[in-house]
Design brief:
Length: 350
Amino acid sequence: MANPLLQQAVQNGARPKLFWADTPLRTSRRGYFWIPGERVIKDGQTYQRGPMFVEWEAPAEVTKPLPIVLVHGGTYQNLEWLDTPDGRPGWARRFQEAGYAVLLVDRPGHGRSPYHPEIVGPTGPPFSYERAREVYFAPEAEAKQTQWPFNPEDTATYDDFLAGYGPMPANLADSEDMDADRLARLLDRIGPAIVITHSASGPDGWLVADRRPGLVAAIVSIEPMGPPFADTPGIGALAWGLTAAPVTYDPSRLTPEEVKAAAPETLRMPALVGLPIAVVTGETSHFAPFGPKIVEFLRHAGAAAELLNLPDRGIHGNGHGLIYEKNSDAALQPVLQWLEQHADSANGSI
């Protein structure tokens, strides 16, 4: 029997919109799982604190020896690695096309990873339209920032872009500790991997390497939070140098005060010694000046750290959201080349 509602809709000229028609068909393996949080007791009841949602996708033929773990920035979720705001494939798809199996996480308290402040802890401030404009396409950078994927005056698209943002946990050190713990247990499950971070998840890369030095083959940090020892309003302080949560130094430093008082060249981090790390910066972002300072700190720590400054490679006009700006495919090329040189072959047998 025909559906009377459908018949009436057709008669009235209302047909389903083929929203899927312009998206290419693809063949892949995909799935999801959880990295559970710890059990906590509150008022005589047992709850799970800060689980981490993980989705993964692999091309029909995986040709790269190591998977990539994509860790999103602060207040957002793993969607930032998927399609771009103007509808093109994002870096997650491009990595798959290059032969990688890819895992995307929603950091604890973000996206599909549940957040209840009575269990996870108080929330930080909400992410406003004004703050987004300051971070991603500040008016003072407008003349040079030519790659933002939509007109900020396009209110509908701006609404879509901001819809996925939520608050971060108010305690940055505690949030990083949860991130690092879940990411470490993710690596326990999948084995050696390349970790790629963006913005406020930059510290997670250093922390997970500290906790699982044998399982992090390389780190690519896109526009990481910094500079060393920075205190970012509304987010928190990197009291341990590049992290808010404690990290291991040799010789040992037991407090943030000891770390800050130490000569930079003495702040060696055993887990990072010899580890290939790329720090990627765009041309117009106010995060870009942090890059050289972070690379210097990492080199003192013993890492094989390198700055991939996009304008130095002929890629211009990018801000903090370079992973989904109009030239995101071009911005990805130095990263793919760096991985080919420093991770795919050299660490394929880690």
